[in-house]
Design goal:
Chain lengths: ~325, ~325
């Protein structure tokens, strides 16, 4: 039996840009927030993380900084995962040493069907699916720059809103992070996919296009819209309607915002693996099962998979 | 009235890799072959062109080397155009100064519907449409390297085989260049499009994929086949059937050949404009007119057009 405790214990896994921001925000509340780092372990351990935010800079000094879960001395109520959703990352293996009976796994990740694997690995633990809306990038190890938005949506996987999810939402609210909870978080995930499945791949495949360039030429806008329509059709086939105006809103949104690089483009330019399956592959698989044609998404998917080959050569 | 003459006069326009090879071959016959050069004028004027061929090296010393048509002293029976088919190249303007009543224009160019513009500019002159099958690249100004094949197909635009076309075919044969003539050259052009419309764009958009990498991963082979099927459907809608086995032959062919870079990839890597419309845009326009869906080709077209934007930024 673990001792009862009042303070909520959160272990952040992954201190990239998104993890640094939301972890740093939660650390300003009554919660105890620690960090499991990889490449940035030394920097974070010695100096913590600096977040340069357009809403005001702040520092994030984790309660504990570890580079593997075995070293963690706390008992996490939440493990908040802010790693990219990549097939080569064995998340279950990373977090297994600190998993308790009551530990909830919070997945702050892009894409679709990214929860299934971890839910299967820990069938008795709560999975909280989280979708972040934020423009933030890591400019060097230990420093993140936050330039826009900063909201988060929560809901249990596959559905529902548990007391633990409500409590986490309260913490985000305490941290002044706009946070909504959803009975059906998948619908929110599909809505974000409208943006992710189009702009992320096109930015890479269009030769390093920024968010504005992709909505400038008629050919590119056509492709963006074709992809978004396919995503909406797949979402609908799973019972999650994406309102049609979301498509125009996404395009207009990019026109209005200051140009920025998508996360996939940032990964690509850094020679890091891209979230090809989370952002395209899984959705195409669902489309196939449900009989939805997706030639535009498949074209981008094939080209990105070819990049995996040419990146190595 | 120009004097009657026995020697056939050919003015080659464009001494890139393809022009160097076929021009150089024709120069070994009884014909008088001259060259209109651009970036390589100084080199070709002083040293001629060296062709390093897997079938034996040879030199091409043009009878006249000029850098604009006004300077040309001959009266060309044939103007053989080996320039890329790009919208920004005003071919009519380049060759107008040397066009005679009997001058035939030979277009050795990739793509579809590339003859229409020049046929309109010179409605009384013969247009000979030529399709080259050759692996050749310019390794420096004045030096071309020939690594595979070396055939050429000829036919009049829009159709037929004129005496002038026959005579040119005889010259190629004299030069030991395998040459066939076609009553309906468009069919041959569509056959080559199977290869061009797929491998050229995919090589660029796949991150610089060589001919072999494109037929290695299942995703890439799928995309190649999807594009080829679309091209075949468009061809069919214009009355030009492409035999189905051509598709498998093209894929198998790439698997067997030594890996090489497509011409579009070579252009892209050199920062030169790509033949996007000749190779994709024109065919998509025909598809639209004939009610053929082309989502895969449109995806690649949109991405290549976006490259035109990002290449400049």
């Amino acid at each position: 039996m673990k001792e009862s405790k009042n303070q909520i214990d959160i272990l952040l896994v992954g201190t990239g840009a998104v993890g640094s921001y939301f972890g740093g925000k939660l650390a300003q509340t009554t919660a105890r927030v620690s960090a499991l780092c990889r490449s940035d372990f030394d920097v974070v351990k010695s100096k913590g993380i600096k977040i340069e935010s357009y809403k005001g800079d702040f520092d994030f000094k984790p309660a504990e900084t570890v580079n593997n879960a075995q070293d963690y001395t706390g008992q996490p109520d939440y493990i908040m995962v802010c790693l990219k959703a990549l097939p080569e990352v064995n998340l279950a293996e990373i977090i297994r040493p600190v998993m308790g009976a009551d530990t909830a796994i919070v997945l702050v990740q892009n894409g679709i069907e990214i929860e299934a694997g971890i839910a299967k690995a820990f069938p008795k633990n709560e999975i909280i699916s989280a979708i972040a809306f934020i423009a933030v990038s890591r400019i060097e190890l230990g420093v993140a720059r936050h330039t826009g938005s900063g909201m988060i949506n929560l809901g249990n996987y596959p559905n529902g809103i548990s007391p633990k999810t409500k409590k986490l939402a309260d913490l985000f609210t305490e941290a002044e992070v706009p946070c909504k909870t959803f009975e059906n978080i998948a619908a929110s995930r599909w809505r974000k996919m409208i943006w992710n499945a189009s702009f992320n791949p096109i930015s890479v495949l269009g030769g390093g296009a920024d968010s504005k360039q992709m909505v400038e030429t008629p050919e590119s806008v056509k492709l963006v819209r074709d992809i978004m329509n396919e995503v909406a059709a797949i979402a609908k086939s799973t019972g999650n309607e994406v309102p049609e105006e979301e498509i125009e809103k996404a395009i207009t949104g990019n026109r209005k915002m200051r140009p920025f690089k998508t996360s996939m483009l940032v990964d690509y330019e850094a020679g890091r693996p891209m979230e090809i399956d989370a952002i395209l592959g899984n959705a195409i698989t669902i489309a196939k099962k449900n009989g939805i044609p997706t030639p535009y998404m498949e074209s981008l998917y094939s080209l990105l998979k070819l990049h995996e080959v040419t990146q190595l050569s």
